Amino acid sequence: MILDEKVILPPPPYSKANSPPPGPPGGVWRTLSALPPHLLLQIVYATFSDAYDIEDAREQRKTLYWLTVGLRLVNRVFYTTSMNVLRSVYLPLYDSLIRPPYTSDPFPFSHTSHPPTHAKSLSMSSTQTVSPRSGLTSVQRETPILDLFIALKVRDDVWADDSDLHLSRAESTFSDLFSLMQPRARIEDLVREYGVAEGVVYIDRRRGGKVTVHPLPFSALSVSFSSRRVGLVLTTGGGSGAGSVRGGAASKRTIVEVPRTRDEALEAAARRLVWELRDWLVDGVDGV
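Predicted structure:
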């Protein structure tokens, strides 16, 4: 075929002003993380399906591992969405490992006046009510314990699938987690609940009302936990961040301590700690 250069017209000159905008017809780019929370949660949840055989179960565990070490680290939205899915998947196993008579309530705390209840399950319908755009931090001290359990369990499962030579240390690791870290965090949450109700602990000064003692900030309190005793530790100094009540060098001291037995409910020990804290404050020790 012979091309006649005189007949073929050259392309029109490039004009930035006349060129169509890139992207969709509306000229607005939409990213996956910009989707409504319930749609994004459904998409992430659909990345794995029910396991029907051994191979499906392995692929499911790999997907959960990817959610843990990959997707949730992309940005704030994906972190919260991934954690909603991971917590709903692993909560039943976590709950089954709670040592009686201990109780558990690991989900993010919302300011309520009713006492804490024992968390049993988290269905997809309930996770859809949690916005992926909500805050990442939670005043609930047991939430990081659940998240730590998920990270350990997901990694151990995938490594065991990849190699028969993998020596799992999950039993010893989980033993420490559920014999010390979980009950200690649970007591801290109970002290917060009971302490706020008694007016001896506050989360936010603006939420406080008239009290007969000067309450302590919950961020400055932690719990020392053992099989025979449980105590409240007050952190003072260290600047203006969480866990401090005055400027200067940070220091910790046990302000109240009560005995406990191995088979005693955590709620009972927490209530005695709050009563002792109230007595400690009433005796004239200045709060903040």
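Summary: Residues 110-135 have pLDDT under 50 and may be disordered.
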